[in-house]
Amino acid sequence: MEPTYRAGERIGAERIDGSEARPGDVVLFQDLAWRPDGSLVMGRVVATGGDRVTCCEGNRISVDGRPLDEPYVRGGDPVGVPGLEFDVRVPDGQLFLAGDDRADSFDSRLRATGDRPGTVPATAVRGRALESPAVPLLLLSGVLGGGVLTVTGLALGTAALIVRRRAQDPPAAPYGHLPVAV
Asked: Which leading EC class covers this enzyme (predicted)?
């Protein structure tokens, strides 16, 4: 998935159902046809069920006749393989996926052969990569900040109740003898 994600880089991901995946999302999926060892694979959603994906008029991939704008593709080459051509109708409940380094990615483009669309079942999706590695840190800092504010609010609220109660108590009588008028 270079250049978007580098090999060995830690990424944040959120659990999603495959039906929530949208074109442009980077998803993590598990499909034994793609990785027999069962490890997670990362790919960018190009199209979803019902879409028609074609290649390569003008050296670009098109979905439903509209050429894709893919600024994230390594080297600016959205095809990556000279002479590659395909015309695939993505079956319902399936996703057409591609890597961002198209010259070095064995994805739906290369798996689409004959009557096999090269797609991945949406049920194989395990999560969606967060757009920025800073997102999990921001979420964590928000949770911690919220916890600190809650504890501070409770402490200040308790202090205010104590001060208010003391202000309502009647003053104590002075010590010693009180002068008595006769």
From this structure: hydrolase
